[in-house]
């Protein structure tokens, strides 16, 4: 399973093999984290990296996540209640966000195949949800609370008429 996931992420440009021979002193990877396999409710497995060591020393991004009850309350307060809803879940949403090259090494993970680091925002980093929410709020700022609600990588579009929904 790990081999297949690593190969899939390499092919997609999500991760790269961490260089280990260029400059041994500069390539110690003190943040290298282990891979863990987590079972999902449906019985399938999820490839995860245990970033607890890195997260423990990471300064917290205080950007707020939306409160679900407030999202529903805002929708209910609309003059005309919405009749049409579309729910979108961004597949591997975090992977749409490139890592800053100066910080890629911090995402290094280790497995039986060697050391790799993420070129795209990985799941499991302490500030990933806040950073992603901030980005989504910026992108959709003119639509949020008008006819759209965004919670991290879930987008819900709502409208009172079919014409408006289009």
TrEMBL record:
Signal peptide: none annotated. CDD domains: RT_LTR (cd01647). Pfam families: RVT_1 (PF00078). SUPFAM superfamilies: DNA/RNA polymerases. Residues 19-166 form the Reverse transcriptase domain. InterPro entries: DNA/RNA_pol_sf (IPR043502), Rev_trsase/Diguanyl_cyclase (IPR043128), RNA-dir_DNA_polymerase (IPR053134), RT_dom (IPR000477). This is 3634_t:CDS:1.
């Amino acid at each position: 399973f790990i081999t297949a996931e690593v190969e899939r992420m390499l092919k997609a440009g999500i991760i790269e093999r961490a260089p280990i021979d260029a400059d041994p002193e500069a390539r110690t990877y003190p943040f290298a984290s282990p891979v863990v396999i987590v079972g999902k409710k449906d019985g399938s497995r999820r490839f995860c990296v245990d970033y607890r060591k890195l997260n423990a020393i990471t300064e917290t991004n205080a950007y707020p996540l939306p409160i679900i009850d407030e999202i529903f309350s805002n929708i209910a307060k609309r003059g005309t209640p919405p009749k049409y809803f579309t729910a979108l879940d961004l597949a591997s949403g975090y992977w749409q966000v490139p890592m800053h090259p100066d910080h890629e090494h911090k995402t290094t993970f280790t497995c039986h195949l060697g050391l790799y680091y993420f070129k795209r925002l990985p799941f499991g980093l302490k500030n990933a949800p806040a950073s992603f929410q901030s980005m989504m709020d910026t992108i959709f700022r003119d639509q949020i609370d008008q006819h759209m609600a965004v919670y991290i990588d879930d987008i819900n579009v709502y409208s009172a008429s079919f014409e408006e929904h289009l």
